[in-house]
Amino acid sequence: MKVSLLFPPTWHPSQPYLSLPSLTGFLRQGGISDVSQRDLGIELLDTLLTRDYAAEVHQRLLAKQHELERVQTGETGPGSREHYVKVTDSLDRFSYLVDRIELAKETLRSESFYDPDAYRASLFMIDKWLEAVSSVYFPTRLTVVDNQFGTYSIYSSKDLMRVVRDEAQNPFLSLFRDRFVPSIVNNRPDLIGVSITATSQIIPGLTLCRLIKEAAPDLHVTIGGSIFTRLVDNIRRCPSLFELTDDIVVFEGETALLELVNQLAGKKDYSKVPNLIYRQNGKITVNQPFYSENVNQLPAPNYDGFPLDRYLSPEPVLPVQFSRGCYYKDCAFCALTLDHQNFRQKDPGRTVEELQWLKQRYGARHFFFTDECFALAPTKRLCQQMIAQQLDVKWTCEMRFEKNLSRELLASMRDAGCLKIVFGLESFNQRIMDFMKKGIKQEWVRRIANDCVELGIAMHCYIIVGFPTEKEEEALETMNFIVENKKLHESYGFSCQPCLFDLEKEAPIMSDPGGYGIRRIMRPSAEDLSLGFFYEVQEGMTPDEAERLYQYVYERISEVVCELPFNYAMADGLLYISRAKEGAGQVPMAAH
Fold it and tell me: Which contacts qualify for 484-488: CB closer than 8 Å, 24 or more apart?
């Protein structure tokens, strides 16, 4: 059996994503030797940032300009006066951009990456180039890390079925058709797996599936990813999705995909495939109970075939995993715990072996632990073994502001190569902390933050504005903890990301909305694949008031936080911190 695994655009261009390498390692361990994997996101971006592609873009821009000179409809939207202005502006800037775009890409892959001014200028140049490329398809807007389709909702199955056929607004149709589908189909795999894990991948991923099914209807296409894990009940009522794919794998995919390959080679009894959603004889079936992997039987992620030299980074930062699920999982707002149904901890020794193997095989010195949360006792053992083995790698992870997160453990993490810890602070107001069921205290936050700064471990804090019942002064207390704490926000590598509260599907708060001060929940009827809801509150800030305050908080925190690279990309920031630690002095920081 031949398996082809595909990761569609758009994801951060600094590093690969963990899903395909995890599946590839598992399939090969399970006896499926003919497995190929491609990160189409970085392949596509690498192609777009070339003079060869620029020649095609120029012809399309000229053709669109001539078309819009003859016919325009309205002031805004596709085919409008605004569309004409966008195309004309792109043509005016074209020669300037095309002379610089390949240099911008190469800068990010070279030592110049560590020059903050060159780094920032390169990202800015790439963004402006993608804006020019996008103008043909206005109001669609491509960016380095996202896609915006102005007239389509990614949460509506009707919109999705339309946009995957819209040649005027969907640039991925021609890009995939010309550049990727022929090589994918001509490889004649028995199964094609498409990993859609972020909302930015939904339209590109489904577009890819549609083109593959049209080019080769006999190829078996399956979709996986956390997006669909949160939409199991919705998928039961969305038969149109199965026009684009044969089936969908939800929750964890290793055993499911291996069994699906085996069934395709044998009796094709899809009822035997765990975590599979499929349509048979007009009926959509969800195979339950959902299966969770034994993490100690999983092999190391296998990055063979990934173009590690094409990521926009001077050296690889590889994602790895020490555990699955969240050991705490009581935070009222968090729907992430659904992705992995229960917490499982990998043996520290196995993790050290994986890191040694990845370092040797791919020359990687920097690692990004994707765990939802490092548990304290296993972390202590992991660090002890990393130090004993003299592993000499640098890494980042996520933790909680736990009462028992001691200075001693933090020092051990630092000595084992930890350069940065990501914390979900969410709020520094004790009432809101308690209401969110965070299980943390202000004094623990202060102590741990001070310890990290003094030990030379960088910090990232996520904060949430607008949790139900939150008052303006409570949100400002959180903001002031960051803004007024110069020792913290002036520490090298510090970053902070404010987020506006979103009432997410499957979050614990949804089981008792009234208890959290939510008076009414509105489910948009047209958005049958929605991951969140509109709502009204009984007290505190309304959603509109929270959004306005969020903008203020975001601006104030941006004044004290180094946006590039630390607030832009964890992987890029990790490399900057590592370089600063290696050198005699710190790498210069870009302007805030």
Answer: 485/449, 487/450, 487/453, 488/449, 488/453, 488/459
> Does a cis peptide bond (omega within 30 degrees of 0) precede residue 289?
yes
Q: Please identify which residue in the block is written with the tokens 């610089």.
A: 100
CB 408 within 8 A of CB 444: no
H or E segment at 362?
Answer: helix 348-362
Sign, Cα dihedral of 220, 198, 7, 291: negative
How many other CB atoms are there within 10 angstroms of residue 430's CB atom? 15
Q: How far apart (Å, rounded) are the C-alpha atoms in residues 578 and 394?
A: 7
Strands (DSSP E) found in 120-231: 141-142, 147-148, 191-195, 220-224
* 483 vs 392: CA distance, rounded Å: 34
Please give the C-alpha separations between residue 69 and each of 134, 137, 171, 319, in angstroms, as whole numbers. Answer: 18, 16, 21, 49
Nearest to 319 by CA among 253, 387, 235, 398: 398
**Omega of the bond prior to 10 within 30 degrees of 0, cis?**
yes
Rounded Cα distance, 208 and 313, in Å: 26
φ/ψ of residue 474, rounded to 5: -70, -40
Q: Tell me the C-alpha to C-alpha distance, in Å, between residue 78 and each of 163, 170, 274, 507.
A: 13, 12, 44, 37
pLDDT in tens, 70-91: 999 999 999 999 999 999 999 9
Beta bridge partners of 194: 6, 223
pLDDT, tens digit, 9 for 90 and up, residues 522-575: 987 889 999 999 999 999 999 999 999 999 999 999 999 999 999 999 999 999
